[in-house]
Amino acid sequence: MAARKSSPRKIRLLKKTRQTAPVPAWIILRTKRTVRSNPKRRAWRSTDVEVG
User: Fold this and answer.
1) Using alpha carbons only, what angle is made at residue 18 by residues 44 and 36, rounded to the nearest 5 degrees?
2) Whole-number Cα distances in Å, 12 to 3, 16, 30
3) Helix-strand-coil percent breakdown of the chain, rounded to 5?
């Protein structure tokens, strides 16, 4: 990550990075495959992040 970012902006970007994670395998097993994918998954290149 570039140095010329304010700390609040870096925190918001890290939150967006964590939100794009796939569903863990243990959750897929626990729900018997009813939950398979993250509906809020975001591709870093195709969708923009409005963090300011």
Assistant:
1) 85
2) 15, 6, 30
3) 35, 0, 65
Instruction: Tell whether the model's pLDDT for residue 2 goes beyond 90.
Output: no
Residue 51 has pLDDT above 90, yes or no: no
Answer yes or no: is pLDDT of 37 > 70: yes
Whether the CA torsion 24, 25, 30, 32 is positive or negative: it is positive
23 Cβ contact partners less than 8 Å away, ≥ 6 residues apart = 35, 36, 37, 38
pTM here is 0.73
Q: Report residue 47 as tokens.
A: 């969708």
